[in-house]
């Protein structure tokens, strides 16, 4: 049995040596892969942002050209004269009407030559005239198509001469054959700013893929959404469908999306930008698998190096494991005896080497172990007190800095007599702060201190907040740790009032639960909240230091289940303190540290 145990131990050492020789190579390869991946993604994102800005500028420049094209009728007075007159049937037209109609026909026929993306246009006169032109197909106007109720027509009227552009629509203004196009419209007005007509040009969205082709980036996926998040152009329709829900309320940023493909899920990532002129969003992205293909070659090479290192070190590892297993087994047997309570370790044997020195050190350690066991309880008690004082010390400098800074700001900016009142409140707070070494104080004294602090903060932030106090008389005589509630009120004022355009309402309440023997103190505010329903103060992080200090002071003083909880409910941020109602005399510490400001 002992021999079998030795073989197992040798095998374990052999495996450990192999791992020690191969893990560094694997770690280096993994770190190199991660670093190269991060660099590739960062560089790709920078390049995409540059391309995105160029593409967005090109689209805006083209649409601005369409905007200027709709201003051409203002330079043709004959058209305005024709639109200003009451509608006449064709058989009633005179020379002026015929001349104006010919001018309008030449104008309409010239638009496609100005820009090949213009496929047609319509002019809807307020006098009832309807004129239109289409570059290809049937040019006869469809009399059944009523545009007066369409959103782009109403928006053109509302803009009072401003240019309006839509996403891709189905154009049915002509008989026999609808076609997709963007609609750019403008309300034409006379010299007295009275509406004359609504002009609409029908723009083929093919100018966008032309811009995309000039990028010469076949692997980059491009999606353009209009202001209503309808697809104007998409190089990958499946990816564009996933992007409809990305960045709806953001002007620019990063995005990631998974798209189903024949070989499984494909992940794309990229950037997007909203046009300040059009309110369109342009999305650019690439396939992450293709982007990181070069980086993966590093990981494959590292894997091959690791395999070679494992094979080369196998023989050396076996020899080392066999030599080290014997003295280690002897040491293990001795440790098992110590586990049973026998603190008499055997004297080291064998030649003078590293293992003998290890056994000697182990022998001395066991000799001291018995002495150390007896001192653990005393050290734990001292550690508990040290942690309490350390937590208190972390609160004091933060509080003093904010208060003194408030005095300095008030003295410089106001030169006000309020400074005297501010100094008086500060004196009370400093006097209470010096009593942090006291074990416990009555809630009545803590509430008076809290009211002084609230008055101090009200001088600094006049009208920013209002405090409502609901403290029953029976709760005032409950002892609590000193300066426990001040960080909670400070947190409510500083964080709750951020971004508010109204007065922050804070309520401070207390209640007793006789059944559980618990005092509940709640500080609630209706200000800016936090994400989620609850903040876990048990987690270690750089945030919420002051709140964690309060929670840890309560835990160290009273233990579970008491402490501090921070929740978000009914549009209120609530800090709830739980402490026991009744304490032993040894816990309250008598009256040795009880003081009162002004007594």
Automatic annotation (TrEMBL):
Domain of life: Bacteria
Pfam families (UniProt xref): HAMP, His_kinase
Keyword rRNA processing: no
SUPFAM superfamilies the UniProt entry points to: ATPase domain of HSP90 chaperone/DNA topoisomerase II/histidine kinase, HAMP domain-like
Keywords, sorted A to Z: ATP-binding, Cell membrane, Coiled coil, Kinase, Membrane, Nucleotide-binding, Phosphoprotein, Transferase, Transmembrane, Transmembrane helix, Two-component regulatory system
GO molecular function: ATP binding; phosphorelay sensor kinase activity
Coiled-coil blocks: 419-446
Signal peptide residues on this chain, from the entry's feature table: none
HAMP domain location: 322-374
Compartments where found: Cell membrane
Gene3D superfamilies for the chain: 6.10.340.10, Histidine kinase-like ATPase, C-terminal domain (3.30.565.10)
Membrane topology qualifier: Multi-pass membrane protein
CC terms in the record's Gene Ontology section: plasma membrane
Ranges that cross the membrane: 12-33, 298-321
PANTHER family with a match to the protein in the record: SENSOR HISTIDINE KINASE YPDA, SENSOR PROTEIN KINASE HPTS
Protein name, entry field: HAMP domain-containing protein
The species this protein was found in: Paenibacillus kribbensis
